[in-house]
Design goal:
Layout lengths: L33 H6 L18 E7 L2 E16 L2 E13 L3 H35 L5 H7 L7 H6 L30 H5 L1 H14 L3 E3 L22 H4 L8 H9 L10 E13 L8 H10 L12 H4 L7 E12 L23 E9 L9 E9 L6 E2 L10 E2 L3 H19 L1 E6 L8 H17 L8 E4 L2 H4 L8 H15 L2 E4 L2 E4 L3 E6 L5 H21 L13 H19 L6 H6 L4 H32 L6 H9 L9 H16 L7 E10 L10 E9 L2 E8 L4 E9 L3 E8 L7 H4 L5 E7 L6 E5 H5 L12 H12 L13 E4 L7 E6 L10 H4 L14 H18 L15 E3 L5 H7 L2 H14 L1
Parallel strand pairs: 8-15, 11-12, 11-15, 20-25
Antiparallel strand pairs: 1-2, 2-3, 3-4, 4-5, 5-6, 6-7, 7-8, 8-13, 9-10, 13-14, 16-17, 17-18, 18-19, 19-22, 20-21, 21-24, 22-23
Helix pairs in contact: 11-12, 14-15, 15-16
GO molecular function, one term: phosphatidylinositol-4-phosphate phosphatase activity
InterPro entries: hSac2, Inositol_phosphatase, SAC_dom
Protein name: SacI domain-containing protein
Amino acid sequence: MAKTNSNSHNSHSNNAPPPFPQSESSTATPPSPPSARHGNGPDPNSSFEAFGIVDFVHLGILTVFRYSYLISITRRQQVAQIRGLPVYVVTEVALTPCTGQQDAAEAVAKTAAALRARDAASSSSTAAAAADVIGRKGSYGRFAQRWFSKSGWAMDQKRTMGLSAEDGSAGAKGKGVPVKFSVPDDADGSAAAISLLPKLLRTAQILFGSSKTFYFAYDHDITRSMANPKVPETPLVPLHEHVEPTYFWNRNIIQPFIDAGIDSLALPLMQGFVGQRTFVLDSHPPQVDDAAHKDSVELSDFASSRAASPSPPEMATADMRPTEQKFDITIISRRSVKRAGLRYLRRGIDEDGNVANSVESEQILSPAAATWDPTARVYSFVQTRGSFPLFFTQSPYSLKPVPVLRHSPDANFAALKKHFEGLCRRYGSVQAVNLVEKHGVEAPIGELYEQSIKRLNDESGEGTDKVGFEWFDFHAVCRGMKFENVSFLLQILGSQLESFGSSVSVDDHLVTRQKGVLRTNCMDCLDRTNVCQSSFAKHMLDLQLKEQGFDMAAQKDQENAWFNTLWADNGDAISKQYASTGAMKGDYTRTRKRNYRGALTDAGLSLTRLFNGMFNDFFLQASIDFLLGNVTSLVFEEFEATMMTKDPAVSMQNMRQQAIELCQKRVIADEDEEFISGWTLLTPQVPDTVRSASLEEAVLLLTDVALYLCRFDWNLDKVSSFERVDLAHVQKIKFGTYITSTISPAQTDDMRNVGLVIEYKPGLTDVTRVNTRSLSSMSGTPKTHGGSDEAAKQDADSASAAAPAATGGGIAGFLSRRPQTTAPRRIALKALHSQTSAADPLARANKQDEPGAITRLTEIQQVVLIAAEIERLAIQNQPRMAGKDPEEAKLIEKGDIISLAEARKNTTLLEQLGHSIKKLVWA
């Protein structure tokens, strides 16, 4: 008779050291003397070996300026067996300071003592509960099975509401190792980075440990799917060289071990999900249900979906029919390190074709580990998810924010093309599945996606595989909580799924390779995506089992709880990593039923996501970027100033260079003008002012006869307006300290906050031109860059009343206006910081003692260079300067534009209070 088990390999002992070679690292706590290690046993306070958890298994070294912390695994839990080899999840880590032997020894001793105390308390409480139950001879019955489960009485209720059962262990609820991080007494380096160091250390401890989202294996590469193996060139290739770099999450922090040649300490981690369930099928099932079997099926559901204890093999197979067979179903979801991060802070695509929330999910069907046969067929089915392969952003301050498309259609298409070329190289054919709404705020981005796919297919050569595209409006089709209507999508794509097939392996040799992949997305690629992906996976599982002689439709007593809860856990894991909450619609994924309680749960999750997006995600995003090596320690200095983070995948250097080139083509009308140079600088949003509430980044162009200050729309890659100044009218150039804010140390550094003011007397050739397309979008849409609404209206009115646009050249489409006054006007410019947090090759190459090093100009050097170039050309264009003594023919003067004292005087108490509150909440 067919049976179903919740049997998973999730509850193995955590006390036995793993088969990992012990090595000594100079960066770790100094090893004990030989006598202590071999003769008299380990010193109880000298290493983690004393309490039998994991000895010298490290994730890497976190370094902020000269302060380093060793991140070590103190607890892990087995979650699956693949090809008979175990896979673990990290459940707890310890951070050990490496600044001195005494600090390291004290930290290790405290961690060891806390772990021993907690283990002793846990063992005594468990033993007492077990003794009580045994003493009653099982009379507690079903109540006891629920109450004494790892998640307690509320577990079933949580699962019904679409939530995963959580064990509330180390870290997440404050029950882990009590570690307090403090700032070193002799802290140097960036004051912001050091002040935020305790929060960074806590974040790293929670991220790598308590979140339970990082997985590893000692003898098996879990970062590669069955269809994407890598055969080692030699049998002793280190594991870190074997894994897929796209899913190697601790590569940056473990690089010091790799550079030192200590390969045995370089344990790769993968973020995502690994889960496994065991089930039993009958090739010739009886058609009459047995009541006793129904009871056993129900009882199996009471075990925690993440920590069910496996039955002994002899008991599991004792009453199996000869026609029955046990299988393991395993899901491995691999989260990409490219464009990694959190929901509204990482959206869309980057210039290299990497998309946010990119996850490869592999479903593996294999014989059960208890009956593992290397010669048996192992099936693998892979599908992917990822954000729209387009440039767009969304505000975190709304429950349903409007997607804002960015950059030109050509830039979007170029990035989308790179993305799908990468998918085709990796998987073969690609079928895109778009689940967003066809009406409302989601429609425009869906339409651009569809148009871009059509263009991609039209431009591909003959004989090239076309990218399939299916737009399935999930909300419209499944309106009224009728999620079972996803079957309509399965009917549409069923034949395509079957043509892609699965990968099949026998005795670790690939026999058949999957021919293509489904790429599914909604707005977040979480909730709707997980419902559909689980349906695709179930369809393929049925086909794989049927090929082996097991018809799921004939299993009249077959329950699919083992499948549904596994995919629901997978959806929760991915959602928590991207949106900080469990997945919505999880109740349907678990039970295939939808009711009002699930809808209420989803409403609560929406509010939680909104709160996290508004407050918690900014620092966590900065921490993720830092741990991945995308940014340097300067990211914390930038975070302190704005409480926001920038996208390090966006190459600002390339964007600025492109903006300069576009402005040059667009605004310089006279072909006789010789272009000299261009720069990007900050300028007040309101023209002819020095002090402004905020600055915007603009483009300054210099020709042999004029200056052009171009206000640029960085979202649309267009010139919004520009101001032309004849160099003959320049009267004075002043450079010096230019401080516009005093709320953070970085903003008060008078060596980094410098600028210049160009004063000129307006003439007939000095004009301001406004892009007519900017005028058409001034009402009804928020300004991304620019001044206040009133200033925009004034510009629009002035431009509309001005002379017609010039014809020819690059300024067609601009309305012109001339200044109505002869009083001197000013153009204030502030230098961008020369050093940013982006860990790009140029920043790393800024070392004078290395051949080919690239020297960056400091802020004051930039300002002096620009001022000198403008002065030189201005003097050439002013006949009154001809023949004058060089000392007299000077336009440059040095002096404060806004001094630190003046800036502090102008900083209001409300501004200081507002930033203090934001820092209290955000950091």
